[in-house]
Design goal:
This protein is mostly helical. It contains 16 helices and no strands.
């Protein structure tokens, strides 16, 4: 790959290299992000075989099998290598063409593969057989000198696991258990879940103790418990004081309301009394007779002269 990138300008080569590093780093843990970085590298250097191959693996991991197959074909045309043949056949399975994958297993390119590549091709062919509903044929396809070998290679655990799974599919449970155990023995890197499959066959159920502990609240220390009790008591006191304050406020408001009502009632009573007094005065004035007119001395003299009373001495 480094040699291929040297054909690019230095700055461009560095940018492409950084994206390819991120593809390799994220391919297993975050295929979607790896795919994104591969598209950037592909835009920068689509004529570099290593870039097309990386883009193919990123698309394959992300489940875009048609796109991955196109990238693998482009990389194979550029290099002339047959090492991508098994993964290309698996892409055919991914897009729903197991017959094509099975046909590729019989092509001359398979003979150009190394031992690891040939085992991968056998695994793909067995998977294609199962896709086509040929479970017994899948068992036969996996029976090979590599399966019978006691030597452990990087592909040994996966081959034994696939064989055990194929046996289980045809109802040969005892043999399947034996080969799951052999797969676990060879699985130094934990690439399979052979241990879980063995436990399932043995009827063993695992309980996630860590999850149960997480659901339970951790036990508190005595000091923490005492602190919690103090806080609870303090909250109770504050709540009680708040309630007392509220009660006092309500009582004050009630007293004020009573006084206001009493004042209003007194005003009403005074107003009614004034109205009654005015009515009494009016009635008394109407009932009282008019006072008699008393003549004055001047009035009496005038009245006597008009009557012709004789003067004295006449």
């Amino acid at each position: 790959m480094r040699q291929e990138l040297l054909s690019l300008p230095k700055t461009l080569a560095e940018d492409v290299a950084r994206n390819l590093v991120m593809v390799a780093k994220l391919l297993d843990e975050d295929p979607e992000k790896a795919y994104g970085y591969s598209r950037v590298a592909l835009r920068l250097a689509s004529r570099v075989a290593a870039v097309r191959e990386a883009a193919g693996f990123a698309a394959y991991a992300f489940g875009k099998y048609s796109e991955a197959l196109a990238e693998f074909r482009a990389a194979r045309r550029m290099t002339g290598s047959a090492e991508l043949w098994p993964v290309m056949a698996d892409c055919e399975r991914g897009i729903g063409r197991p017959e094509k994958a099975l046909a590729m297993a019989g092509e001359p390119e398979v003979q150009r593969l190394d031992k690891s590549g040939q085992v991968e091709m056998r695994l793909v062919a067995a998977g294609a057989r199962r896709d086509m509903g040929q479970a017994d044929a899948a068992v036969v396809t996996l029976q090979s000198p590599e399966l019978a070998s006691h030597a452990v290679h990087p592909w040994t655990a996966r081959l034994r696991y696939a064989y055990a799974d194929a046996l289980l599919a045809v109802g040969r449970e005892d043999e399947a258990r034996e080969w799951f155990a052999k797969a676990l023995e060879a699985d130094q890197g934990g690439t399979t879940d052979a241990s879980d499959r063995l436990a399932e066959l043995d009827g063993v159920e695992f309980t996630d103790a860590l999850s149960e502990d997480d659901d339970q609240e951790p036990e508190q220390e005595p000091e923490e418990q005492e602190q919690d009790r103090d806080e609870a008591r303090a909250e109770t006191v504050v709540e009680a004081e708040a309630e007392d304050t509220a009660d006092d406020q309500v009582e004050v408001e009630d007293e004020a309301k009573v006084e206001t009502d009493a004042d209003d009632q007194a005003d009403v009573n005074d107003q009614a009394a004034d109205e009654d007094a005015d009515e009494d005065d009016a009635d008394e004035a109407e009932a009282k007779p008019a006072a008699p007119v008393v003549p004055t001395f001047s009035d009496a003299g005038e009245s006597a002269g008009e009557a012709g009373t004789p003067e004295a001495g006449k």
